[in-house]
Specification:
By secondary structure, this protein is an alpha/beta fold. Helix content is 49%, strand content 14%. The protein has ten helices and seven strands. Strands 3-2-1-4-5-6-7 form a seven-stranded parallel sheet, with helices on both faces. Helix 4 links the parallel strand 4 and strand 5. Helix 1 packs across helix 8. It is globular, with a radius of gyration of 18 Å. The termini are far apart. 42% of the residues are buried.
């Protein structure tokens, strides 16, 4: 019997690593994709023969295409998990254009690259999935994270549009929404947004991995990791447009 298979970008640490560990424990065939070769090779050695490391940059379509093709082989694969992403926490005026352009390239273009290049392989498998890391920052723009919020709004738009477009092809597209997760980019930033201390870092990477696992079992478009994340999103969505600004000022330390 063919093992189910998942291709994970950004698999070298944090959420990607935790997801690989969970899926390996469930007996899946796994592709670990990351720009950090040493991390994914070490992780692949830990997780066993069904796990393969592919060094690739999601911003480089050629390297990503080669990794996807090598993993897919003749039979395709079942799940693409777009996990690679970066975060910049500082006020817009203080953030360099180069840093913001890199963030958009990884968080948006990297996701577009992965989705587009994986389609031929996902079409080969019944009930395949594309799962992408989004954020509660896709519900309202977050000050001190303006470019990051913009990138996650783009992920949300891609998810919602492609969920409809690709349904007829048997591919279900969804995303995972969460607030701050205890990963290196949140715990050890050069500058920390005020909202980190106000909202707290209350989610572990393993909880996100469990949500990715659950996203295989039901046909939902947006998956929230915790009830608190969903409650915040619902509170913002239920607040009148012009009143949302005041709410966001409070929870991000700008009131």
């Amino acid at each position: 019997m063919t093992k189910p298979s998942i291709f994970i970008t950004g698999a070298g640490s944090g959420i990607g690593k935790a997801t690989a560990e969970l899926f390996a424990a469930q007996g899946w065939r796994i592709a670990l994709c990351d720009i950090d070769c040493s991390r994914i090779e070490s992780l692949a050695a830990e997780l066993g023969d069904a796990v393969t490391a592919y060094q690739a940059n999601v911003c480089d379509p050629d390297s990503l295409a080669s990794a996807l093709e090598a993993f897919a082989g003749a039979d395709g694969f079942d799940v693409l998990f777009n996990c690679a992403g970066i975060l910049e926490m500082r006020e817009f005026a203080e953030c360099s254009l180069a840093a913001m352009h890199k963030l958009i390239d990884v968080n948006v273009n990297g996701v577009i690259n992965g989705m587009h290049l994986a389609l031929p392989y996902l079409r080969q498998r019944p009930r395949s999935r594309i799962i992408t890391m989004s954020s509660v920052a896709a519900v309202h723009g977050i000050p001190e994270e303006a470019a990051y919020s913009a990138s996650k709004f783009a992920v949300r738009a891609l998810t919602e549009a492609l969920n409809i477009e690709l349904e007829a092809a048997g591919i279900w597209v969804c995303d995972v929404m969460v607030a701050y997760v205890a990963t290196p980019m949140v715990l050890s930033p050069q500058i920390k947004a005020r909202s980190v201390d106000i909202l707290g870092v209350n989610v572990m990477p393993q909880q996100v991995a469990e949500t990715v696992w659950q996203a295989l079992k039901e046909r939902k478009v947006h998956w929230f990791v915790t009830p608190e994340d969903e409650a915040i999103a619902q509170q913002i969505d239920s607040t009148l447009w012009e009143e949302r600004r005041g709410l966001m000022k409070q929870i991000t330390g700008f009131a």
